[in-house]
Amino acid sequence: MASARSRLVAEVRASLAAARGQARTASAVAESRRAAALDRLRAVRDAHLACVNGLGAQRERARRAIEADFVASARRLADELAAHEPDLGVVRLGTVAAPGCPVLMPALVPLLDHGHLWFTGAASDVDSVVRLVLLRVLGAAPPGSVRLTVYDPERLGGTLSGFAPLGAASLVRFVGPGGLAGALDALVDEIQRLNALVLAAGHTSVSALAPRPAPWSVVVLLGDAATADELTPAASAQLDRVVRLGPPCGIHVVGRGLPLPSSPTVVRVSVDGRRAVSAAVAELPITLDAPPSADEIAARCRAVASAATSGPPAATFSSLLPGSYWTCVAAEELSAPVGTSLGGSSLVSIGLGDDPPHALIGGPSGSGKTNMVYAWLGALCARYSPDELALYLLDFKEGVSFARFAPSVRDESWLPHVRLVGVNINNDREFGLALLRHLGDELRRRAAAAKRFDATKLAELRAEDPGSSWPRIVAVIDEFQVLLTGRDAVTTEAVTLLEDLARRGRSQGIHLVLASQDVSGIEALWGRAGLVAQFTLRVALPKARRILAETNLAAETIPRFTAVVNADSGVPPANQVVRVPDASDRTTWRALQHALWSRRQSGSQPPRLFDGDAVPSLPPSGGPGAAVLGETIDVGARPAVFPLTRAPGRNLAVLGTRATEATAILSAAALSLSVVDRQERQAAGEQPDPAGEAGPPLFSVVCLDDGVLPAATALCAALPGGRFFDRSTVADFVASLDSSPGPSSQHVVIGFAWDARPPGIDLKPLLSRGPEQGIHVLGWWRTVARLRDDLGGPGSRTDAIGGWVALDVHGPDLSPLSPQPGGPTWYPRERRALFFDRSTDRAPQVIVPYEIPPDRLTAPPTALPSQNRGVRPTDAANADGGTR
Ligand SMILES: Nc1ncnc2c1ncn2[C@@H]1O[C@H](COP(=O)(O)OP(=O)(O)OP(=O)(O)O)[C@@H](O)[C@H]1O
């Protein structure tokens, strides 16, 4: 039992041991599984952690990249906006910060050519911003291109007093209390004017026109409640127009304190201290820039005003000159620079040829017309030799602007291209006419040559006829309108000639350059559309009016020393603005002239100088049997002569009270006759007159007025064989006529003051029968009426007077002696006379009485004064009857 129990115990024990063993084994297995599971868990956790960590870094990197990108874009944008700050159209007020963006952006608002800026807020805050805005606008725009109008009734302009220096260049205008309506009316008028221009040019805004026809106009309105009543309904309506229609015309309103009409063109800005907001910058808070100091404003405005008045830096005359002289050929055209372009330094050339053929230059006094002509001529003459270019230069104003081209006492040089210079000719319109006639003759000569060679233009003629010289001719007439003022024969003929030259000169290489100071010159032409149309080259100096096309106001706004050059009849798209160098400086000019003069061909003649103030000197002789009376006003400076033939009526009357000139004319006539002898007549190819005029003239000098006694006796003393009679001996003279030279001799009677003859002396037989017998009267009557008395009284025939020279006698008084009903158009003037020879002239001509050189009046000439030809022995006949 015990063993069974023991066995049983043993068995139980063994079972228990086995079970324990199994349990231990199972536990160990479970434990190792748990450990493995834990390991896996850890690995998973680690992997998860690693994964989470990796993703975070990646996200951080991506976030940083996006942020960097955003900041870079914001910076780029800020830079771009900053680059636009100097743009004319926008103004920077300050900076804006976008939420979450560390970069500050410039706060730019549109203004010029876009709209208006209207501020709300405390007046002092707003005014600081307004000063800032105005200074920025003035700084960005070219000097002179922005004009301010300031309405500040409360502080009478004091708010913007720092801008007053702009007044020096008329760039600011202050409008006082009560002036608002007027100022708005003026703006509306300006809008209307500019709109008309814009429409005419086919554009939609003034900014499309180049150059701008008017500066930008910024109108600053600083109103408040107290001034609101100035804005009457009418003024309010005008303000509405300005707000709606101003921006395309460059008219912009900036200000505060008035009820500005709402319009898409108005940018509103609300200001609070140094902060502001505006829909124009997405209502983001703007930090306003610091307002400029008063000194800063004044300094900037002074600089703007001075730059606006002094204009751009000058171009130089030497830049117009070529490297080597006289290398250009004018067959096709004459082309030369007149200045540099406004923006850069490139030369701007203008040409004269088939198109454009002629030029009009205009500008008010002092605007630089003459300087422009100097610059142009200098550039032309340096390029083209005198064989290529010939110049005729007339200046109708008081002054001697072209005199520098002719030799003078100070400078013997001349411009070799110049054929003729006219100065001080403002009273001698006839000289302009003479030039046109001369050019007309040249035109016909060229046309005839062209016809011979079957050439249609100068280039062809030159090619066909290379042996001849066919330079292009440029005729410059300054103040040409003087020539066309007056309803008389001079104007009529001048216009006809101008029309012909303008029309046909183109193909013959004759070019007209007409300059005028004021509109009247142009108006003189304006009625003649055909004539004006030929002048397709237009040069308008600053403020020139009506030189360009009617709608082209470019000359209004260009600065000093510039010009609008337009080769298309002045239409706006052809405008070229040129900076013209100073070509007036004598030293610079002289250097060029000397250089060109030293290259002239040997034998080159100086130009003919017609100086209206100079008194011409009596030439040695006027030709056989011809009395020289004065110098004709023509290109050749020919003497006006009165031939003493044996035809009836070959007497000459000098008419008028001006003793000095009457004496000069009679002396010139007598002295010129005294030096012509038989040999000279024969040398001149004149056949001896069958009536026997070959003998020397007998001179009788009759002086009936004591005032001219010295001159008359001096003349008589200078005449070979001269016989002298005064009031006491004039009866002897009449008696001596019976014993005067026979039919083979000529007797010249010089009568001073015939009208003072004593009673009983009858001149009629002498005047009417004398010339056939070789007795010619060259007499001075102080009135036409007294001459008529000597011819038989009023109504008597006047054909015994074949020629007359009128001094201070008015045209209608000359009607009895003139073929023209009512007499010639003649307004007497100093040192000028009107001469008419019935046998040759259709109309009288103006002459300049000569000055008699003292050596011609000293003694009877024993030899010709300068040519030394022939000596005439004293006529023995002078001993009888003559009183010395
Ligand atoms: N481009 C220029 N640069 C420098 N000075 C100039 C220039 N143009 C003109 N001037 C000067 O301005 C002054 C007036 O010029 P200019 O005599 O040419 O004018 P104008 O229009 O011919 O005047 P007016 O009709 O009264 O004769 C002169 O002293 C001249 O030297």
Give the C-level CATH assignment of the largest domain. Alpha Beta
Could you give me the name of the CATH homologous superfamily of the largest domain? P-loop containing nucleotide triphosphate hydrolases
Strand element count = 31
Tell me about the biggest sheet?
A: 11 strands, mixed
Task: List cofactors, ions and other ligands.
Answer: adenosine-5'-triphosphate
Q: Report the β-strand fraction as a percent range.
A: 15-25%
Strand order of the largest sheet: 12-11-20-19-18-13-17-16-14-15-21
User: What general outline do the C-alpha atoms trace?
Assistant: elongated
- End-to-end C-alpha gap: 218 Å
Q: Give the uncertain stretches in residue-range form.
A: 684-694, 861-884
What structural category characterises the helix and strand content?
A: alpha/beta
Number of helices: 20
The residue fraction in helices comes out at 25-40%
Q: What is the number of domains?
A: 4
Q: What is the CATH fold-level name of the largest domain?
A: Rossmann fold
Mean pLDDT: 85
Q: What topology does this entry show?
A:
Layout: H1 2-84, E1 90-97, E2 104-110, E3 116-120, H2 123-140, E4 146-151, E5 172-175, H3 180-200, E6 216-222, H4 233-245, E7 251-256, E8 266-272, E9 275-278, E10 286-288, H5 294-310, E11 333-341, E12 347-353, E13 359-362, H6 369-383, E14 389-395, E15 418-423, H7 429-452, H8 458-464, E16 472-478, H9 481-484, H10 489-508, E17 510-516, H11 519-526, H12 529-534, E18 537-540, H13 554-557, E19 562-566, E20 575-579, H14 586-597, E21 608-611, E22 626-632, E23 639-643, E24 652-655, H15 659-674, H16 678-683, E25 698-703, H17 709-718, E26 723-725, H18 730-736, E27 747-752, H19 764-769, E28 775-781, H20 784-791, E29 803-806, E30 833-837, E31 845-849
Helix pairs in contact: 2-5, 3-4, 6-14, 7-10, 15-17
The structure holds adenosine-5'-triphosphate.
